[in-house]
Design brief:
Elements: H1 2-19, E1 25-33, E2 45-52, E3 61-68, E4 76-83, E5 93-101, E6 104-108, E7 113-115, E8 123-127, E9 129-130, E10 145-151, E11 158-164, E12 169-176, E13 184-192, E14 198-203, E15 209-213, E16 218-221, E17 236-239, E18 249-259, E19 262-267, E20 273-275, H2 282-292, E21 300-311, E22 320-332, E23 350-356, E24 359-360, E25 371-374, E26 379-383, E27 388-396, E28 399-407, H3 416-426, E29 429-435, E30 438-443, E31 448-455
Parallel strand pairs: 1-8
Antiparallel strand pairs: 1-4, 2-3, 2-5, 5-6, 5-7, 6-9, 10-11, 10-17, 11-12, 12-13, 13-14, 14-15, 15-16, 16-17, 18-19, 18-21, 19-20, 21-22, 23-24, 23-25, 23-31, 25-26, 26-27, 27-28, 29-30, 30-31
């Protein structure tokens, strides 16, 4: 009888175990590629990893990975499965890839490709860049990195200190020589252009700052249109041998929450999350939050003047980035941070024309605005501002060619000359690049002839 009872208990327990909920398996997908005209060895090995990079100054935590052996030539499609229970919606996750020939590293990603949380999708295109070996070829600069230099100005010059962090965040300090004023700080996110030739800073400024990459250790300031500044003066920033931390002091906006006697702050422009120091104007911040909160620990938008400084944490041996609230301004429960800046894609995007040759674009009433849409099947369609425009296109890396471009023949009261100029310039285009939310098209001489902006369609 005891034996039968024991067997019955084992069977019941086994059945209960089989009914226990299993962890949900999710996946991220995408492709890795490089644009250099270099053949990869047929037995090349691609490694792609999914990592949690939320904790500053700490090693990334690996969530999932995939290895593709005998990968051949790019592009390399990949899928990584992961356990959804390991994902914290407050954390930041990225994909990174490396291409090997045996144990020799050939190509690697050198920018942050965020996925899953904070408004980012579960797929990404990873740009691989060549690694410099003994032959002296370029390789990705390791991050974090400090670039600095003195740039020309109307006065004695401007000392620039630029920090590029591995999570796509930048911090910038400008000091005008000959002035006694405080340093000017800016923070935000940086993107690489689609052709990899530029680094663009998107922060609190009205217009992004653009730099040309002159190898892994030098950045050269460009004008607002992305053109080189024609001057004998030096507009370059040099990578410094060691990373030099910045502690910017500026006006900040972000999501704040207070729970278990501690405050946390997520800054809007960068997405950086950090503890809040119990000093400065912290008491006014806590009181305003507690008066406005609906649910314990909920996030609310706040604005304040403060400093992002290195402070010792409650636990841990090393200082961490911390918000020091110097002057609290207000709490705004109904507001939230905008979506993080991302690099737009060429295809399936409505591109509105904003620059034609060297002139702005005129828009006529009751006529379609000049625009293009690139479809995945190689068709391009849009409007020249007067007539419907259609044709075919083909891309190979940053190169683009148009064929069979044609427009309808309706006569318009305005814009006929501009429409013909648009069509003529399209036939001269040989390459393109995407700068954040803008598309630039260049002729064979490398001059920007057309510029478009991405339009969100609802």
């Amino acid at each position: 009888m005891k034996v039968l009872l024991s067997v019955f208990i084992v069977v019941v327990l086994a059945g209960c175990a089989s009914l226990a909920p299993e962890s949900e398996t999710a996946r991220v997908t995408g492709e890795a590629l490089y644009l250099e005209r270099i053949a990869a060895p047929p037995e090349a090995r691609l490694e792609v990893v999914l990592e949690d990079i939320s904790i500053a100054d700490a090693p990334a935590k690996r969530i999932g990975e995939v290895t593709i052996r005998e990968a051949g030539q790019p592009p390399y499609p990949f899928t990584i499965e992961y356990d959804e229970e390991q994902i914290d919606p407050r954390h930041t996750y990225r994909l990174a890839a490396r291409l090997y020939d045996g144990e020799k590293l050939l190509f690697a990603t050198d920018e942050i490709h965020q996925v899953i949380t904070r408004g980012f999708p579960s797929d990404a295109t990873l740009r691989l860049r060549p690694v410099r070996g003994d032959d002296g070829k370029d390789r990705p600069s390791s991050l974090p990195a400090t670039f600095s230099g003195t740039l020309p100005s109307a006065g004695p010059g401007i000392d620039l200190h630029l920090n590029l962090l591995p999570d796509g965040v930048y911090m910038l300090r400008e000091v005008y020589r000959g002035r006694d004023g405080e340093p000017i700080f800016d923070i935000g996110r940086y993107l690489h252009s689609s052709d990899g030739r530029e680094v663009i800073l998107h922060g609190g400024r009205e217009a992004p700052k653009r730099f040309e990459r002159l190898g892994p250790d030098e950045l050269r300031l460009l004008d607002m249109d992305g053109q080189r500044i024609e001057s004998e003066l030096n507009y370059s920033l040099a990578r410094q041998p060691t990373f030099e931390e910045l502690e910017p002091r500026l006006l900040l906006r972000g999501q704040y929450r207070y729970l278990a006697g501690a405050g946390r702050f997520r800054e809007c422009l960068t997405g950086l999350e950090m503890p809040v120091a119990t000093e400065g104007d912290n008491r006014a911040l806590e009181e305003a939050y507690l008066d406005a909160q609906g649910e314990p620990g909920e996030e609310m938008m706040i604005s304040l003047e403060g400093q992002l400084a290195q402070r010792m944490p409650m636990e841990g041996p090393d200082p961490v980035r911390t918000l020091v609230p110097e002057r609290f301004i207000g709490v705004w429960p109904e507001q939230s941070c905008p979506s993080p800046i991302q690099l737009a894609t060429l295809q399936n995007t409505y591109w509105r024309l904003t620059l034609l040759g060297s002139e702005g674009v005129q828009r006529a009433q009751n006529q379609r605005e000049p625009h293009l849409v690139f479809h995945e099947d190689g068709r391009v369609a849009g409007s020249d501002g007067c007539n419907a425009l259609a044709g075919s296109y083909k891309t190979e890396g940053p190169e683009v060619t148009f064929s069979r471009l044609a427009s309808t023949r309706k006569a318009c009261l305005e814009g006929m000359e501009q429409a013909q100029q648009f069509l003529d310039i399209l036939n001269d285009i040989s390459s393109y690049r995407i700068i954040g939310q803008h598309l630039e098209m260049l002729d064979g001489s490398g001059d920007v002839r057309l510029r478009f902006e991405r339009v969100a369609l609802y």
